[in-house]
Prior knowledge:
Elements: H1 4-14, H2 30-50, H3 57-66, H4 71-74, H5 79-82, H6 86-107, H7 113-119, H8 128-149, H9 157-170, H10 176-190, H11 197-207
Amino acid sequence: MPMHEFFMGMNQLELINRAPGFFKYQPHNVAAHSWKVAQIAQFLADVEEQNGAVINWQSVYEKALNHDYTERFIGDIKTPVKYATATLRSMLADVEDSMTENFIKTEIPQQFQTAYTRRLGEGKDETIEGKILSIADKVDLMYEAYGELEKFNPEPVYVNIFQSGLEALAAFKDMASVKYIATDILPDIFAEEFTSKELLYDLAKSLLPDFTGKKRDI
């Protein structure tokens, strides 16, 4: 039982477009998203570590690189559909878990199955590495939306995506990495002109107490 199917799956991830069904100036695929999330998570873990957190770096990279691999089985379902009801979300998760479990049993060599059960499982848990993954995933999603907003894409979904990203960051507002995003990254974003800038600026100020609209002195 070789790793052929797993490696081929990486090619399939290049063909799965994110935010399907919406007009976009710059398409993004799941494979590129996973690489970007790994880069963002790496930096966020640096921030947390410099602020006293103990980081399991293997876990950071495994979670980030593999967090969307299972989308090769069901694709990237539109967020409004995926989260339409708790029941539907649970059903989709069950289908994904079942297909992932079967894939590991049939396509991953036995001596590596424990490792890939860990890597392909739900990475967004209550560990600091899981929280870093949650933040990194939303940061990349926000940048995908921001890329469309600064081109004045008329699709309202990108405002909604950016807004949901801010709301997700607010859930981790006490973490050092989110404080850094609020003080050093969001001010640079809001220094540019883009669709619904005022609305999103006000939302950021209401959700993230460390966001003042001005970059902190270093």
